[in-house]
Amino acid sequence: MTELSIKNVVGGGSLGKELDLFSVAKTEFDYFNTQYEPESFSAVVFRQKSNGPTIMLYRSGKFSIAGGKSVEDVREGFDKFCSDIQDKTGLDIDPDLEIRYFVTTGDLGRPIDLSAAIIALGMDETEYEPEQFPGLFYRPESEDWFMILFSSGSVVVDGNPDIDMLESAYKKVDHTLSKNGI
């Protein structure tokens, strides 16, 4: 079993005011390229010119940020975003950022019989439709995380910004499966 590795840090927040997205989208930014197609998506998408998280900014001033490889990466992208917004638009913003969850991956180190895993993990908390998707979704009702298991033994664990909780969930599922001979 490998340790979990963070693949994506997802956050969001607000700039504290409503915005004219047409004006924002027409602005030349130092760190970001923008894309705005209101007929198909209601946010301005900010993509960093260098690698970094992507930000989706809505008229309400709320935003989502995703694609960071670490919390520091997301905070750095957020700081560049706020700096660009203030410097290039002249808007007086009151930004806040909340780290919402991590997307992590790991490998249990063995193939998993997903049909047997349904029984071990509980039919009420699992969903597996191999014709639609090759992974088993495990969503324990009493937890703040969920997991996708693949027959190769690879897993995706996310839904929480506490890496220790995600590691604990990963080990707990590995133990439950091992205990049941899976």
Structure description:
The protein folds into two domains: 9-100, TATA-Binding Protein (2-Layer Sandwich), CATH 3.30.310; 108-179, 2-Layer Sandwich (TATA-Binding Protein). Helix content is 27%, strand content 33%. The chain contains four helices and ten strands. A ten-stranded antiparallel β-sheet has the order 2-3-4-5-1-6-10-9-8-7. Strand 7 (126-127) and strand 8 form a beta hairpin. The protein is elongated and about 60 Å long. The two termini are 13 Å apart. The mean pLDDT is 95.
Brief overview, please?
This protein has 4 helices and 10 strands, in the order βαββββαβαββββα.
For the terminal residues, how far apart are their CA atoms?
Answer: 13 Å
In total, the number of strands is 10
Beta-strand proportion:
25-35%
The helicity comes to: 25-40%
Overall SS class: alpha+beta
**How many structural units, i.e. domains?**
2
Strand ordering within the main sheet: 2-3-4-5-1-6-10-9-8-7
How large is the count of helical segments? 4
CATH topology name of the largest domain, in short, is: TATA-Binding Protein
Average pLDDT works out at 95
